[in-house]
Specification:
Oligomer: homodimer
CATH superfamily of the largest domain in chain A: SLC41 divalent cation transporters, integral membrane domain
Shape of chain A: elongated
Radius of gyration of chain A: 29 Å
CATH class of the largest domain in chain A: Mainly Alpha
Distance between the termini of chain A: 78 Å
Strand order of the largest sheet of chain A: 1-2-3
Amino acid sequence: MVDAIVLEDALKVVRLFLEQEQIEEAVDYIRGLHPSDAAEVLARLEPEERLPIIRRLSSEELADIVERMDEDDMAAIARQMQHERLVHVLERMEPDAAADLLGEMPDVEKATLLAEMADAGEVAPLLEYPPDTAGGIMNRVGPMLRRHMTVAEALEFLRRHYKDERELYYLYVLDRHGRLVGVVSLRSLILADPHQKIEEIMNPEVITVPADMDQEEVARLLARYDFLALPVVDEENHLLGIVTVDDVIDVLEEEATEDIYRLAQMSEHSEIFSPIRQALANRLPWLVVNLFTAFLASAVVSLFESTIARAAVLATFMPIVAGQGGNAGTQTMTIMVRSLALGELDVQDMWRALRYEVLVGLLNGLAIGLLVGLVAWVWKANPMLGVVIALAMIGNMLAAAVAGVVVPLVLKMVRVDPALASSIFVTTVTDVCGFFFFLSLGSWLLL
Amino acid sequence: MVDAIVLEDALKVVRLFLEQEQIEEAVDYIRGLHPSDAAEVLARLEPEERLPIIRRLSSEELADIVERMDEDDMAAIARQMQHERLVHVLERMEPDAAADLLGEMPDVEKATLLAEMADAGEVAPLLEYPPDTAGGIMNRVGPMLRRHMTVAEALEFLRRHYKDERELYYLYVLDRHGRLVGVVSLRSLILADPHQKIEEIMNPEVITVPADMDQEEVARLLARYDFLALPVVDEENHLLGIVTVDDVIDVLEEEATEDIYRLAQMSEHSEIFSPIRQALANRLPWLVVNLFTAFLASAVVSLFESTIARAAVLATFMPIVAGQGGNAGTQTMTIMVRSLALGELDVQDMWRALRYEVLVGLLNGLAIGLLVGLVAWVWKANPMLGVVIALAMIGNMLAAAVAGVVVPLVLKMVRVDPALASSIFVTTVTDVCGFFFFLSLGSWLLL
């Protein structure tokens, strides 16, 4: 029995060997790791640290490691290999991983590599589909059965022809025209009476997906039914490939990360310790867009400069009205965005969501407004200031509720990812409304 | 072949039947759905809508549906069943799902139900572990093999004794003391020569997890190695249960949702259309905590009221300095929180992260500061105002970078979920620093 290794420890061991110039020992240590761990360690080493290791690993070993990396890391390693070596490694990788790596390459290089690969026929079809669709993430299909085989014949067939099959999730049953007619789980193949026919144990109601289905939709479907794989078919129901549960886990993680980064207003490609130039490209444009909307809020405040000059205490409470509205709007927006992503909410629920969130906003506004109003009254010994801030708070909480519901749902309607742009619109609304409510009430009631 | 149904459509069909009081038709329609879909539909119906349906489904049918729901939905349905009926349904559910449902019950009711259940012996041990650990999410183990069996014997043994086994991922091999010594995949059992011994085809290096390992750590481990299940063992390596890939997907989704909601400063239990009282409990306390930190920012502004009274233009630019700092701090903090969650970052990387983010912050600050300074100069025809705002912006971007790195990593060190409390500390720092830098520079250079 073994415990999973701690990656940080493995990384330290490798670096220790490298520092003492014991390259062979480092390579042997990496050979001894599970390929998934070796992939993580290689990906985390600096390019110049891993170069001597890459050079010493065989093409088989490298293929086994590289196919477990994500696309960015694959591409980084590929850039460190000579052209001929890369062809050898690609030939030894699982076709879907090879396709992922080739997808990261410039078109010319991709074409050259494909032309030189011995088994390009398995990889090329996978490159036809956009990377974030069922076709883009599917793997090649393994062995297929016929409905009139017996279980014993099927087992014999598999043992004879697919001895070295590395990945096996379900067995698909085809008719004579190569169309999918059923699916058999490994479990039912093992547990069935050897004399039974495949058609007796197969499930004829196979849930399939088209090649152009969005990868997130495929992932949610597989998760909903607790499947280990989903078959991808064309319009005539020919089996094109399968999407497997391990790829689905990667998709769900990737989509969650994408939403988290987009909600925080940065590129979904953000990554810790990426080159500085990349980090700026991932963040600065979002800050600039935010800046323009912040100027809208400033413009509102600017209208009231003469009011503020006469009652500077208003400036003191400006951050509170806008800040609380922004927080409440973010809460509403986030629950909308996540529920849309998880398929728990649909655009047709807009009115129900609006009624619900406006009620929550009103109650939050009454509670927070009362509290802030009292504090303001006591702190500045000014009851009317308390009234102004309380009313402004209630108004802004209602604006926050409306914006928090409407913005994500409208973005969804016009097919923009709600996670992408909701934050910016919602906080713009709460800033502009917050300052306007507060300062106009202030200039009316306090001067 | 079938396409996956659209849940909204299924829900409409059921509601149409119910409105026309065709209860039997509604029940038959639900019986015809995949149990995962039936679970979704039942969960989305209002309690009074689903009551007649629950009454008409058999205990077997209900068990098959309820075990595919999440805990909250399970508990809601269970509350609509009479005690004896609930016992029958629990007896027919998979033990791990029954344990999840019992875990939602008050202690007294849980004990009564367990006492009345016929197969409590399978369920009770699963209730011993906290719900968010490996023990809490594990399933019971299926058939187990011995190392000296041949493949043919193993297949015969499985067919004879485990014909109706519903879930089978791997076969575990035990020694005579019941300790785990190896694992055989269904694939290798199918593809092996029938005369081979199990010990020849088993993998003796089984990666195991302890029952008290956090569920998120278990999930990441399974995902890292692309396993379909992970065995949970005690200290003597006795097999206690298995965590399966479908549960891991649920855990990863749940943890992502938790992080998204916590980053948006609301309870991780937030759910769309939960009862209003619940929604307020999930959101209002966070708004109140935020309010107290917002008063810190107000207090800073308050110090400068006399400055603002003489140069009210400062109030106009207050939202920009604080807002941009808040956005930049949120970007840094979010990348830290997500990288910590995905295991790509560790607390020992603090210095490297700090150097990196301070550099990004400085460059962002220079770019944004220059831009805002120019706009302020032109808009208000006041070059010194431009200088003040540019300097304040650079200072606040640096504060944002430091807070964005230090806050999540320190929370992680003291074992608080960084997603839980980072937002509030980071925006407090950027508000307080932003206002202080801007207003103190303003009172020095503009008056």
